[in-house]
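Take a careful look at the sequence and tokenised backbone pasted below. I need to know what the token row says about the fold.
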Amino acid sequence: SSDVSSSDLPAAAAQGYKADATKVDVKKYPKYAAGQTCANCALYQGKAGAASGPCALFPGKDVTAKGWCQAYAKKA
């Protein structure tokens, strides 16, 4: 599968997806908290330690482990 890219922009933009969580606009996404990344999100299906992996939100696409979007849900 390929990484979420500009061809997926409508879906990714709708979720405020950023490939690098440190670049999230906290004014626009006030629910973002430092330390939240795709890697520790319940929707992320990548292997621990991998640079990227599948996300339930973007079928057939990978997100970066260090990314973030507003659908973030802390992994149990």
